[in-house]
From TrEMBL:
<feature type="transmembrane region" description="Helical">
    <location>
        <begin position="9"/>
        <end position="27"/>
    </location>
</feature>
<keyword id="KW-0813">Transport</keyword>
<feature type="transmembrane region" description="Helical">
    <location>
        <begin position="63"/>
        <end position="85"/>
    </location>
</feature>
<feature type="transmembrane region" description="Helical">
    <location>
        <begin position="319"/>
        <end position="345"/>
    </location>
</feature>
<feature type="transmembrane region" description="Helical">
    <location>
        <begin position="242"/>
        <end position="269"/>
    </location>
</feature>
<keyword id="KW-0812">Transmembrane</keyword>
<feature type="transmembrane region" description="Helical">
    <location>
        <begin position="212"/>
        <end position="236"/>
    </location>
</feature>
<feature type="transmembrane region" description="Helical">
    <location>
        <begin position="281"/>
        <end position="299"/>
    </location>
</feature>
<dbReference type="Pfam" id="PF01594">
    <property type="entry name" value="AI-2E_transport"/>
</dbReference>
<keyword id="KW-1133">Transmembrane helix</keyword>
<keyword id="KW-0472">Membrane</keyword>
<protein>
    <submittedName>
        <fullName>AI-2E family transporter</fullName>
    </submittedName>
</protein>
<dbReference type="GO" id="GO:0005886">
    <property type="term" value="C:plasma membrane"/>
</dbReference>
<feature type="transmembrane region" description="Helical">
    <location>
        <begin position="33"/>
        <end position="51"/>
    </location>
</feature>
<comment type="similarity">
    <text>Belongs to the autoinducer-2 exporter (AI-2E) (TC 2.A.86) family.</text>
</comment>
<feature type="transmembrane region" description="Helical">
    <location>
        <begin position="154"/>
        <end position="176"/>
    </location>
</feature>
<keyword id="KW-1003">Cell membrane</keyword>
């Protein structure tokens, strides 16, 4: 009898482990679809207040309100992508008119000015330039089909992005249009005794996350304005595209601002190659650094506390600790999803174990 029980236990454990691995493998295969759904859910949460406003204030039919919201989101995305067209076009023109000898000379001049400012010797400069050997490297790449590879890569990226954009917009449309149907279907998967709590958790989570993502857009917009103004005053080419890219890095907590600052410094240097490094480039880098510092001060002491306190109802210190722990456990992706994930967890815990002392302490600000 005991051997039969043990055998059944081993069999069940084997099935459980095999089923878990199979599920993980299937999720791995459809990871792109999962990414589409998650991104569409974010866009749906951002567009939800617009849809509700059109339905309640302007009395628009549901499908018309959703269509207008999707059109606004699509226009915004196209406008943001269009910012980078001049930057990419200019880089393509520079590649077509590539003068390797002049570029090598400019690179040598840049290294010379940089090392003079840092007090390095001439021998170090010559060694660095010899290691770079730009002309020989580029010519070798050109001979091995560099331009066709670049063209194929660009076409693949454009094709993938087009499919992704269409998929995300399609899913977003139905998440906004049939939100009650989808929500009801999900709730019916659970026992009837838990359905009211699950329904309430979903409603509270949607409201909190909508406010959080809209606040995040406001945070990016504030940084974008500060960065764009700084780059424009300094005289950097394509300030809007560069400012948006660097502001977007701020989505990654703590690490993103550093990456954005490095990008701005790099563009500041590359936009002024040929100028005197110590007299002209360094002061421009200093002005850009001041703009970055001002933007981060406003972000850290105004934008972030406002978003965290008024959208997800969490204390900034609480959020800081959650982001750090998520980063240590799951890396950069964990840091990005830490705040919305923690918000969802708090709502669920408050709904199902409200009497727990720890849950009470963490959810006192949730209404």
């Amino acid at each position: 009898m005991k051997s039969t029980v043990i055998a059944k236990g081993i069999y069940k454990a084997f099935l459980l482990i095999a089923g878990t691995f199979l599920l993980l493998y299937v999720l791995y295969l459809i990871q792109s679809v999962i990414a589409y759904v998650l991104l569409a859910a974010v866009f749906a949460l951002i567009g939800r207040p617009v849809t509700l406003w059109l339905r309640t204030k302007l009395k628009c039919p549901n499908i018309l309100a959703v269509s207008i919201t999707i059109l606004l989101l699509f226009t915004l995305l196209v406008g943001l992508v269009w910012l980078f067209v001049p930057l990419v076009t200019e880089q393509g023109e520079k590649l077509a008119l590539l003068n390797l000898k002049n570029m090598q000379a400019e690179l040598e001049l840049f290294f010379q000015e940089l090392t003079n400012s840092l007090g390095a010797s001439k021998e170090i400069v010559e060694e660095i330039v010899e290691e770079v050997d730009l002309e020989e490297t580029v010519e070798r790449e050109m001979e091995t089909g560099f331009l066709p590879r670049v063209f194929n890569s660009v076409m693949q990226v454009v094709g993938t992005m087009s499919i992704s954009l269409f998929s995300i917009i399609f899913i977003t449309f139905f998440l906004l249009k049939d939100t009650q149907i989808i929500q009801g279907t999900l709730v019916r998967m659970f026992p009837s005794m838990h359905r009211p709590g699950i329904m309430n958790s979903i409603d509270v989570t949607k409201n909190l996350l909508s406010r959080y993502f809209i606040g995040l857009l406001l945070q990016i917009l504030i940084l974008f304005i500060i960065y764009a103004a700084t780059l424009t005053l300094v005289g950097i080419e394509h300030p809007l595209a560069i400012a948006f890219l660097c502001a977007l890095f701020n989505i990654i907590p703590y690490v993103g601002p550093i990456i954005g600052a490095v990008f701005m410094m790099v563009f500041t240097v590359t936009s002024n190659l040929g100028l005197d490094f110590g007299i002209e480039i360094v002061p421009k880098m200093a002005y850009v650094a001041i703009g970055v510092i001002v933007g981060q001060l406003i972000d850290n002491f105004f934008s972030q506390p406002f978003i965290f306190s008024n959208s997800v109802k969490s204390h900034p210190l609480e959020i800081f600790l959650i982001i750090i722990m998520a980063g240590l456990l799951f890396g950069v992706v964990g840091m990005i999803v830490a705040v919305p994930g923690y918000t969802v967890l708090k709502v669920i815990l408050r709904e199902f174990i409200p009497e727990n002392r720890i849950v009470k302490a963490l959810t006192t600000r949730l209404k």
